Task: inverse folding
């Protein structure tokens, strides 16, 4: 090619070589930038998980009074519109439970709860009910646990009217279909026969015996005789005794207008069978207080020999705090120090990271209206039960004897706060949070109030609570695994 001005021939490399050289330059630049960024990121990554820093979570919690409605038909309802998805989520909390089962009828509450969703209702047989719910793509769940019953429904907002009509029959006109009774009884018997197959099931059962006593209602297990004794009439009477509107607390969220939902709920809980209406009007059948006659076992090591497994399941138990105790929030922070934050927690750091004695170790509180426990669980090699237990006891003693450093306390509080805030991001979770408080607690706290109580926990509060709970004379250890004849099991129960 020639220049138009000078006539000098100009030579250019082929276009492909220009592109290749330019690409090489760009790639070299990107690699240099990437290496620089990698070095920068590596320099900024802390060497320990507890040194990670996060910006504060900004969250504006709702106020319960803005959503609480006393329905004329009886229930208290928390109604939370949420237009994000075209769904409606409803949960009904019923003040009932296995503690209301007559002696010798163990399994009655569980059977009733299961049959509400699977035994037919109103004019629908069990099969018709299942088919109709499937057509609506609706999820119906029913359950009766130790101290509460729940009925939940999730469906498309456009199908609310039909879904609520079905739910009305489930609540007030269950059929308890005979073939479904037989089916569920068979399943319960099969489950009973498998109680000792899994060491985790044995662990949970033995922990319950030790922390609450064998005669406590939660430890009354079904037997073949109790299942056989349950009749169709028993199911009807248990249902009629507790399934009436004033015994309900409702949480509902989703794609709806608030006023329209109130109207739909009033219709849902009105016009039940005559027996239900009479109980509602006369206020007959108010559930009695949940029993509190629990007995914590004497201090000791309780071994269940299971020679066919290699791993030992160890559960350490101490008397804890009740659900509405003034120490409840100090207990949450204390447990966050022991177990919160994963690998940055004291138990995980000591027992797994530092000493390599357990793959899994965690602590948790069980707090009921009637009793409470603090439990530490470990999954360890059977030969490491002793060393792992001593390591946990050392951490409990440290929490009892030493003030928690300010930075660690702040991290534990923030962990508890963050977990609570994230758990309540969705409106249905908030409706459940408020409905559960209304059903089970002495008062309904706003999220702001709960968070303030958590922020108010001091190092002195944690150390004082640990001093009252962590005592040798209260310490029980349940070990599920092979009996290797360890000579020092009984000497484990001593806090340093």
Result:
């Amino acid at each position: 090619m020639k220049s138009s001005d000078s006539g000098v021939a100009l030579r250019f490399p082929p276009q492909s070589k220009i592109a290749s050289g330019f690409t090489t330059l760009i790639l070299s630049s990107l690699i240099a930038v990437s290496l620089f960024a990698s070095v920068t990121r590596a320099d900024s990554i802390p060497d320990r998980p507890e040194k990670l820093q996060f910006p504060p979570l900004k969250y504006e919690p709702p106020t319960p009074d803005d959503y609480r409605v006393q329905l004329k038909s009886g229930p208290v309802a928390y109604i939370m519109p949420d237009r994000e998805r075209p769904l409606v989520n409803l949960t009904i909390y019923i003040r009932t439970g296995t503690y209301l089962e007559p002696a010798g009828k163990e399994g009655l509450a569980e059977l009733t709860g299961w049959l509400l969703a699977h035994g037919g209702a109103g004019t629908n047989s069990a099969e018709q009910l299942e088919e109709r719910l499937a057509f609506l793509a609706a999820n119906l769940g029913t359950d009766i646990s130790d101290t509460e019953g729940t009925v939940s429904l999730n469906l498309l907002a456009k199908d609310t009217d039909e879904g609520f009509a079905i739910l009305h029959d489930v609540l007030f006109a269950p059929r308890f279909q005979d073939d479904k009774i037989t089916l569920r009884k068979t399943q319960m018997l099969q489950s009973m026969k498998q109680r000792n197959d899994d060491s985790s099931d044995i662990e949970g059962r033995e922990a319950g015996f030790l922390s609450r006593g064998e005669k406590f209602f939660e430890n009354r297990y079904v037997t073949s005789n109790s299942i056989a004794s349950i009749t169709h009439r028993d199911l009807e009477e248990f249902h009629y005794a507790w399934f009436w509107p004033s015994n309900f607390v409702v949480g509902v969220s989703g794609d709806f207008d608030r006023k329209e939902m109130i109207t739909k709920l009033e219709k849902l809980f009105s016009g039940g069978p005559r027996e239900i209406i009479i109980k509602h009007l006369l206020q007959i059948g108010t559930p009695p207080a949940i029993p509190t006659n629990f007995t914590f076992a004497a201090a000791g090591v309780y071994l269940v020999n299971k020679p066919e497994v290699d791993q030992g399941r160890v559960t350490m138990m101490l008397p804890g705090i009740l659900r509405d105790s003034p120490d409840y929030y100090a207990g949450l922070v204390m447990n966050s120090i022991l177990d919160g934050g994963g690998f940055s927690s004291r138990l995980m750091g000591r027992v797994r990271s530092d000493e390599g004695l357990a793959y899994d170790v965690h602590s948790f509180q069980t707090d009921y209206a009637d009793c409470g426990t603090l439990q530490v669980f470990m999954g360890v090699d059977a030969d490491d039960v002793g060393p792992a237990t001593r390591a946990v006891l050392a951490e409990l003693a440290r929490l009892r004897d030493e003030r928690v450093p300010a930075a660690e306390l702040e991290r534990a509080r923030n962990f508890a706060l963050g977990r609570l805030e994230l758990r309540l991001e969705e409106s249905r979770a908030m409706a459940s949070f408020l409905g559960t408080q209304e059903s089970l607690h002495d008062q309904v706290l706003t999220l702001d109030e709960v968070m303030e109580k958590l922020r108010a926990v001091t190092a002195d509060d944690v150390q004082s609570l640990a001093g009252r709970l962590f005592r040798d004379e209260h310490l029980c250890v349940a070990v599920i695994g092979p009996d290797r004849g360890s000579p020092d099991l009984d000497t484990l129960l001593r806090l340093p």
